[in-house]
Amino acid sequence: MKKVKLNKLLFLLCALHGFLVFSQQKHIVGNIVDETNQPVLGVTVLVKGTSIGTVSDIDGNYEFNIPNDASVLKFSSLGFQTKEVVIGGKTTINVSLKEDAAQLDEIVITGFRGAEQRAIAVKREATSVVEAITPEDIGNYSDENIADALQRVPGLQVERDDSGNGGGDRVSVRGVGPQFVKVTINGRTPLSAGSEGIDQLRQFNLDVLPTEIVGGAMVYKSSEAHLIEPGLGGAVDFQTIKPLSLRYGDKNYYAVVNARGDFNNYGDNSALKPRLSGLLGFKSKDEKFGVVVSAITSSSNRAFDSYVMAYQTKSINEDTDGDGVTDVTHDNVLAPGLTRFNPVRNSVDRVGVSSTIQWKITDNFEATADVLYTQFDNRSTRNQFRLFPQLETSNVFPSADLNIVDGVLRNFDTANSSNPAARTAVLPTQYDNLQSSYMGGLNLKWEKDDWKITGDFSLSNIEFDQRLTFTQTWINVPSLSYDLTGDYAVFGYDQAAANDVANADIRDYAFLRDIMFKGDNHAVRFDVEKKVNDGLTIKAGGRYSSNSLNSRQAQVAGAGQPWSAGYLDEQTFFDTYVTGTLGSDFANGDAVGSNRWLSINDALIRKNNPDVFNRSAGSSFEGDLFDVTDGDLPLLTQNSWELDETTTSVYGQMDFKTEFIGLPVTGNFGVRAVNWAVEGRAFSTITLTDPSETLGPINYAGVPTTASSSRWDVLPSLNLNFELHEDFKLRLSAVNTVSRPDYLDLRPTNTLSYINPDSPDAGSQNGTASLSNPNLQPFSSWQFDATGEWYNHAGGAFVLSAFYKLIDDFIIDETTFGSELSDFGDISFDTEATGIDNQIFNATTPTNFTGVQLYGFEFGFRQPLSFISDSFRNFGVQANYTYVDSKFDEEINEVDNSFPGSSKHNLNSVLYYDGKVFGMRVAYNTRSSFLRNIGGGSDVRSNVTYTDGFDRLDVRANLEVTKNLQLSVSCQNLTASDRRDYINNDPSLFTQLSTPGQVYTFGARYKF
User: Which of 69, 94, 354, 679 can pair with 708 through a Cys bridge, CB separation 3.0 to 4.6 Å?
Assistant: First the structure.
């Protein structure tokens, strides 16, 4: 791909020139309500005798341009009597529609169909390419979490959390992964704990956001200048519930209580757990003041089994003549490495509270204050079992017990090898992940005549703490075999021997790690909007945002622990802590080789050995990073860092309404300029080496290091919406977006090996370095989109989109030779080492490497089926298919050249029945296999890893017992779909299996 070399402003100005031909028109606005004064969405508003029209939005509002000579507006909607209004000299026309008794049975304003209608209305009236999700009724998402609602949106895929290590469900848009999707709440940026508070900190974990406190979401697939800059994939903005938007009927309050119980039917973790939520809203009689509070408290059990096998490249020794001596050595063979069988049993406790106050202080001035608090605690217990085939493959194997095919070790058996005995280990493990966050803000809005001025101030905070502990019990077995010819790698060994105390070796070993991650954000935003005339509105504004992040780790690992008496004696250990063996249903009984091993009471080990496990980080997590006093767990300097990130942005945007060759056109053109500045503090490890080996190495660990960088990005955007017919729209967009690098690539954590200046060989060769890169440019993308939308008179919508993304500056790790440190940004070391200035290095660092082309199309529809016959009047269907393909401009690796996280084929579909008493929704999602990580570089694993395609079926049913009482039942993941990973684009090279179960939920909802 050639880089886009046109000047960005010139490009969009030229594109805009052909469309901005303003005509003399009248701008009409208004609001549509029913007889109870509730807003009516989806009302068709037409200039009588023409095809010029629009549709009311979720709040009953509408606006559009009409010819100056238009005389009558016609309002029509299913279930209501058609109404005509004389325009005269009016520019604001509010109407009240009466119900049509003949059509009344067709009206569905809540339930599954109501949510569909609201989503269609929002999409139809949007200027850019957007999708919307809304609850079936206020405070009533039927989904277990917000990810389940998002996965029904066209072009979205949800990556499920299957680690249990503090990550979460995350969203991808059009094949572009979670690190490239911007998530906001009420237009503000929340902080994320990423994975374990360590990395992926720009990826928002959806699990922490309960559905009960969310009032809806907008998904932006293209951008506008006034929006906070989205990522390469797009943006998702969640909105909390606003009090003046609730449907109160003839009351001035609204209340609802939800009581649910859910259980995960997997393994031994299936107890029914409670979930209680409620919402209370109030508004004054003059509808100028309102308050809403929603809250949730829940406990749940979640379980899955995980089987992970790593790979190593090894030399394998073969004995061809049976004398026990190596005759042939096979080099560079892909062989199994550390293998883990991990039954994960999670206990999740959640608290969430959201509150909003709205006050229309005057007719022109409104203030809204809101606060959101969430607490998400996940305690995970695991009796992990490990095999060590990387040790066993160092043997000498008879030819009959060895099978190497095309450089891959497919089979081995140590029974007749030079060292047949093999090693296993049981690791009773406990993860405690405790997370809390809040976000609060004040929004002020002033409107008068043609002016609108908005100010917004927000604060947010996140705190994440993890305690990880485990011990190891080693058990020897007579031999080990390996078979990689089926769907999974199968290991064979004497399972009875692995459970025998006679083969045990209780080790003086414990691992304790504490992780602390804290983040604070404050942001200020100011927007001004001026309506110049009926065809032109000018917007301008700015935003300042500051993130302060603090990540620390403290750890003790190894021998020398103060164990209680008798702990290290094998028989005493077995008598005290071994509770038997795990059941044989690991991984649903799939043939994975290991399905039964010792069950160890980890809680009792920790209780009986307080001197080992009651130690904490303490002072390691207190005070200034560069002046820490170690606590019981000493600070891991190589994994501890601080980062301050600020963004300052300004924008200008024109919203226009005009005609082009006789067609009504709306759109916007704008430019957003963003200054991004980063200052980091961390530690480096510096070693002075001597190639002549005359001098010994000199090590300087925990060297305080600082780095900083700053840059501007200019991001133009153009969105056009052609009304080819009153029911058909064509949208075109061209936008420039960026995604910032991962924080781990920016933190100044470095490892440097200098040549000692006192060495006789000083100057004879380069030093080596592994460096961060504060000078990294963000990922950037030009995105082009063409979308056709047809809205039929049966309440449905058909959409076809084509998209093309030109992504530049993709980041990988790259080694450069003969570099100076100054080539990698403003990095400063506080070290006692002298004489090391101006050295030359062979340095490995994250760098902006190449570009990517990503392209595809979407086709989807939402359609009530009442047009077929009266028998189908309560049925509806939604389906969408997304195709995505991609390629890098330069080869990233020898295996694959496609964009990570992108499935070529994605299908989401929903079939629902929404009757007066009974409703049911069946949602089916499937995606094809995809590249999970590109290997090496900044990825955790060195191999190129893929995930098999999978499908998922969710079912929900509800029964209206009375007007106010609803009962419900649902099942998530009815198909019990597994996740299976493989490497190197070869499905036979299995590397991971995760086997979750179904989640069943029973609920009752009462409205007051």
Answer: 679
